[in-house]
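FAQ: What does the model actually see?

It sees only this:
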Amino acid sequence: MNKKLPVYQRVIIYGVLILICLICIIPIITVISISFSTDMAIIKDGYGILPKGFTLEAYKYVLKDMESILRSYGISIFVTVTGCVLGLSFNAMIAYVLSRKDYKYKKQLTVFLIIPMVLNGGLVPTYIWITKYLHLKNTIWVMILPMLIVPWFIILLRTFFSQIPSSLIEAATVDGASELTIFVKIVLPLAKPALATVGMFITLNYWNDWFQPLMYIDNSELYNLQYRLYILMRDVQEMIKNSSISGMGISIADLPTESMRMAMCVIAAGPMLVIFPFFQKYFVKGLTVGGVKG
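And it is asked to produce this:
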């Protein structure tokens, strides 16, 4: 029989959960608050959950070239969506093959995937390979293909696929289903929690990436959002540094440096904060699947 917990225990449990929620939410609120504050107020009074000296200067400065920001947003969305769909597809297919006990070259392929996790090829060989042999430099695909297949994600998916009862696959095989049919109509529907979790990781990898544009993109029209904001912040810091050297006297107080950093965080992280709740239930749900009914 289910018994209700005593009132004092429920109060303690709810209090702890509320405290955890506040610990997670307050930093986000603080970042948003600082983005609407003036730098002078921040220097004087410090951070707070309420804006101090409310202003939109930080957002005006970041969004002054709206056309470039919107173009970068579009590139980031295209790269993230395309990379997530292709990456999840390829990683899942490889993981499914490795999860099959009857696959002949299972051990060899596993070793082949683990080696890059331990021994990286290095920055210079990777740069030469991507630019000279693959000719991906200054193309949008250079932000997608290098991160398409991740051995760690394959191992996560393989672990889940291995837990799917083999009797389901055997029954489908007896009924005449092909490997593609089994994978698409049986394995993938059962693997929704794992696919959603890995898909979220892939999405974050692509959305937050600024290193690939830094290395391989010279055309400013192909900058993604993260790299565009990085360049903007770098330019502001250079402006302050050069003005101090030349005696112009521009200081951190003359530009919304601190609030601009937080405004960039809000602009860059906003879409992920909206998407994450849709994946949350899959993180809470265990990566297990019900057994075969007799």
